## 1
Amino acid sequence: MHTLTIHAAKDLRIETCETADPGRGQVRIAVVSGGICGSDLHYYNHGGFGAVKLREPMILGHEISGHVEAVGVGVTSVKSGDMVAINPSRPCGECSYCAKGYFNHCLHMRFYGSAMPFPHVQGAFRQHLLVDEAQCELVSGNVTAGEAAMAEPLSVCLHAVKQAGEVKGARVLVAGCGPIGALCVMAAKDAGAGEIVVSDLADQALGFASQIGADRTINVSQGGEVLTPFMENKGYFDICIEASGSEQALQAALGVVRPRGTIVQLGLGGDMSVPMNILVSKEIHLTGSFRFHEEFAHAVRLINSGKINVAPLISATLPLADAVEAFDLANDRSRAMKVQIAF
């Protein structure tokens, strides 16, 4: 089979490896669709992000869906031909964090396409993939493979919204409207947010935010004064989900979030400087949000039911042979929101 393997920054290759038969409790998936994530772009553009660097060739990808091709002994929940979304989160289930239910912090996590450990965890951008039965979530017949592959990034956003606490009726600012920010808008809306405002540097992204449910948008490229009205009375927003990974966006959030409000730092952009006096004096809750676990099944249910429509986010789907073109397109925010690869 073919795989999509990164060797170094801008060195993306289509390679081959053997296809294996499923063992007990395993399922072999014929991968249909794979979404290019921000972390995949970091590996492609820079060979990693922060302290995480490629130290060996690695198959990319973790946003995937496909058809069940074969099942191993003992598998009962799926059968050959079923369309499934694949949960890329594979905690050990035995470490101290798994015992507490903090599965996304597993000490021995095997998350597809991650250079955090060494040897690296090989990813899911391949034509055939062996998975555990528990990783498979059935997709309804009205959902496309591309939509099913959006379950993974939606899970990230559902976890972020959960980290925010009580969202029903809240005034929510989403800072940054790339694919994750856009899905945060959808997740916050589903959670009952009273008002959703989106900030970004690009009018095109803000126009998209309005189409998917944002009540207001702010182009922060016009200068910090555009946020001034939201700073009155110590802050307007109950919650900010910072999805851009920008230090400036985080600092701005501290000014517009009310006392005892919550900022969820979801975007990864390296180390940031935080004005602690504002954080302390306003008693703001600043919390991180990392990956997900149980939210994956919920994401698939939301997509299956049509409560969240992820289709508008899919800008283009290119064949595996055009993978480099797909990554270059995904890099261009003026042309694409979410780019997927057809396997």
## 2
Amino acid sequence: MAPAVLHLNTQQLEYLVAVADASTWAEAAASLGVTQSALSQGLSQLERRIGVPLFDRTGRRRVLHPGAGPVLRYARRVLGETHDLARWARAVGAGEAGQLRVGMIDLAAVGPFGPIVQRFRRERPNVELHLAVAPSAVLGEQVLAGELSLAVIVEPSPNRGDLDLLPLWRDDLGLYAPEGQPAGPPATWGPWVTFPATSHTRRLIGRRLAEAGAGFEVVAESHQPEVLRSMVALGLGWTVLPVAQAEAAPNPLRRAQPEPLMSRQLVVARRFGAAPDAAADTLVGHLLERAAELRGPTPEGRHPVLP
């Protein structure tokens, strides 16, 4: 047989604690901002619901029954935990506590926006921040599934309309050939080492090479720009990579042509209709501030080569 459930409310428990801590019922009622009649009715209901006497009469006064101790201790514990929960809820509502799951492509996580993650953790130590680094397609699906609150990804093309996309950064990509191979006309470029077929960036690269009149025979694939850079250094093929990653130390690649071949748009992606999240809003604000800082000395919002 299931145990009986006591349908108590925190107001009645608060009445009990106030009476226990005050010298008179009038003082207890005043501390709660209620009338003595409301206080008396609330405690009578509590007594009936518990089913044990909580008060004794001493003349016209009612005093706590000696056996009311377990109920009073319970009331103090519940009220304490309720106040803790209220403080936590206010902190979460203000973005100062709780959990935040964020995704970033590798360039964003280890490049210009990595310091923002560190800053957020310093400023909001009570927010449990989880960072996932993965390709854009993977992160976009995780945002849609509710597994991530937001992600910094390459803008999907076309956008299916189920992601709310906020432009963040325009990223330059350069053309890189194995050492000793001149650029020449586009028809002579290749073969290619590049990102897997599911990659947003690979689709953008393929489209741009087609516009330039170059073929796109892919002989090796990797999600990791460092691996692709090594493949080019070994002479396995040509590639198109973010300038910040291809030309970073040590062993930077040298561009086959001075100007970037193309650019891609990085965006902050959030799911349409997602519940408000103050912590996520704060992080997005920091990301936008960082993007504005980096745009200052560079043309068209493109970032400098990172060390």
## 3
Amino acid sequence: MEYRPFGQTGIEVSAIGVGCWEIGGGYGSIEEQEFSAAVHTALDLGITCFDTAEAYGFGASERSLAKALGDRRKDAVVVTKFGIGYKEAPNYRDSSRERVMVSIEKSLKNLNTDYVDVYMVHWPDLNTPFEETMRALDDIVQQGKARAIGISNFRREQIETSMATRRVDIAQYCWNMFDRRMDQEILPYCREHSMGVMAYGSLAYGLLSGTFHADMSFDEGDWRARQGRMGGINLFQTMFGPDHFPNNIKAVEELKGLAAGYNKSLPQFALRWTLSHPVVSTALVGCRKAAEVEDNVGALGWDIRQEDFAEIDAIFERNGVVTCPDVWLERE
């Protein structure tokens, strides 16, 4: 296993991490028994990072992760998030001090642990001063309930405002071949300030799994089934919208040829691309089965040649793939 510094936290983290959105119901059904087996396989292979959130199934993901880890909690770097999914809050977001203190206790109970390694704000709450949130998070660290704190999906100026009160240890953003927006401002800022970076959506929500085809349909409970009807989340139009999805699939078919040149699967090739950015500490990948975890580890121990980075860009260009849409992944 390859390990990388987690910013300046003193924590080392596996280059591949397990994203636990799926077990909370984000992608339709997933068997808890299979998830537990996948978690144990990950630990056996040296994967240490597990990312969940209060909002993933209203605690269901945290509880499933706790059950899967069992007495191996000490072998894991557990990251959880708070701040979204509250029906009574404006825009469903709340990062007030009161919410921080209530949510950390719920997450610790769900996770069956005394502390989390990283506690993160899931989305920025524009109705609460960032200073209030950061002071509350620092108190959580001082109380021993978290080792480090972080943010997810903040704009650069929002990170800067937060940093004026308390250092942001870890940042989490979408980063993959199909979504490169963060390399414009966010990732350079994280590198400048030596933040650890967690890349989510490493396989572009399944596009880079190599299993999709232009005529496929998703299960009714799967958010990708709403392609073309994503409301304010316009980013997904360039991934799954009807004007883009067929071209994206064509690009994926060409990428398979490049991956084959390394004797790698497309997911392994895509993960290697994500991990090639020097600021990325860990790339999160959802997993349903142990075999998927075993396949993901094939992304480690080799490098993509420079000329093939250029060929990837050429493939995307000739297929009209939009990698930097002028949108932010949020509902304004």
## 4
Amino acid sequence: MKATKILLLVVLASLGLAIAPRGAAAQEIQLEGPLAGAPAVRHLVLLREGRFFVTPQISFTILDTFRRHMMFGLKAEYNIFDWLSAGVYGGGGFGWRTGIADQINDRGVDDVPNQDYDLNFPLRGELDKQLGQMQWMVAAEARVIPLRGKMSFFGKLFVAVDVYLNLGVGIVGVKERGNTDCSIQPGTGTRDFCPAEDTYNAMQTRVAVGPTFGGGVTVYFNDWIGLNLEYRSTPFTWNQSGTDEFGASEVELDQKINADDQFLYWNQMMTIGCTFAFPLTPERTP
């Protein structure tokens, strides 16, 4: 019986050694033949590298509180590599009131001669005399194109697509409510109201500078024309509402309209454009 137990232990130990995991060893695969050292893609169409892009664009601001803007512009860029380009953008346009601004304009204070009123309660029908507006914009920026490929529609229509990110400096022409000082009412010394005739000073223009960044997609219908869709944000400080926002507290404002009433806004816009590439025929890799 004892010998049988010893024999059984020896058999089990042998089976354990047989099924125990062994160290894995990787074998390097040497590619030989005509594919040795070959590039991943041959005859790749270099849609960007060494070419100039000219893109007429139409832009619309989004998430606006008081005034929306439409800008007509042109983007020009040179593609240093297929994944990197540098360019400039310039455009100008006009704005119009949002729905909430229309309600404020229609329900403002009645224009009674010599009536005194708070700067933050506009006269009825006079809101356009205080709302800020972007008049023009130029930008210098670099673009990185990290993604590129082809897209298929129902397995029949194929188009080339690239996705890019851009970063640069934006310069914007801004029109804002003219500087107004109603901190002391003539003859009374009070700080609460302002004479109506002194309220709407002439609108003033200035140049605002800030970063500009975003990204977009370019869809190529052939070697030299494509559709461009882009998002852009250009944050800078300005007074969109044309109201008094600065003071010792939210209750005690300083009854002035000046640079202290400017706040940071992201100034976001969506853009659609048509891209033309020059020269018309792109280079190809070996």
